Amino acid sequence: MRSILYIILLVIFQSCASQAKPVLIDSEMETNVKENLSYYLYYPEDYEEEPEKNFPILLFLHGGGESGDSLVTVKRNGPPKLIVQGKKFPFLILAPQNPNAKKWWNTRAVKQLLDSIVGNNRIDKKRIYLTGLSRGGGAAWELAVQYPDTFAAMAVVCGMAPLPYASWINRKMPMWVFHGEKDKSVPFSESENMVAKLKEMGYEVIFTRYPNVGHSAWIKAYETDALYDWFMNQELK
């Protein structure tokens, strides 16, 4: 009787095992991802006065606190804040808003917006600059990796910086990195380690560290007039 029961169980087990074979199929699906990006676009004073001149443009990406559906919040920090305060810049500034309060920047959508602005304005394509703070700083690193032939220079303020990105950035693109040593949101080590890696690989990097500053390093960083002079001296190589 036991031998008969054993045979029955063995047959059942083999039957179940035969039904559990892994299957690998080939297929495909067309995806369509859309993003509605509101934005500010700043024009320098002499843009209309010099109709034959092509101008540089700076793409600015804000931090997580300015994400959402209220465009006015983009004016809280960075170049848009300085514009409201009366500062004048010698280049166009494109400042889009990430509509997703809890999500990462859609960098592909940002690049499409940038391309559209460049294509419909008098832009010097060899002088497209990139900057971002916090979550926008992380997105700036990502854009530099995804589109290494687009940007002439980049400035990142307290942004997350995955070390593998170092191998994919345009080796001829100058970079300026800012970070507060007391940052509790994005550790100072993110920028410190990335800068060390980039310098080890021969990149041109300026590193400004603020000893007694937390996550709001962007206040000092974007009030650094030398930053904008530095941008104006860069050209895509």
List the uncertain runs.
7-13
Strand order of the largest sheet: 1-3-2-4-5-6-7
Level-1 CATH class name: Alpha Beta
SSE order, one letter for each helix or strand:
HEEHEHEHEEHEHH
Helix percentage range: 25-40%
As for the CATH topology, it is: Rossmann fold
Going by CATH, the homologous superfamily would be Alpha/Beta hydrolase fold, catalytic domain
Radius of gyration: 25 Å
Query: Which oligomerization state do the chains in this entry correspond to?
Result: single chain
- The number of domains is 1
Major sheet: 7 strands, mixed
Total beta strands: 7
First-last Cα distance = 84 Å
Beta-strand portion reads 15-25%
CATH architecture: 3-Layer(aba) Sandwich
Question: SS-based structural class?
Answer: alpha/beta
Gross morphology: globular
Mean pLDDT: 92
Domain Dienelactone hydrolase: 114-216
Organism: Maribacter ulvicola
Signal peptide: 1-20
Keywords: Hydrolase, Signal
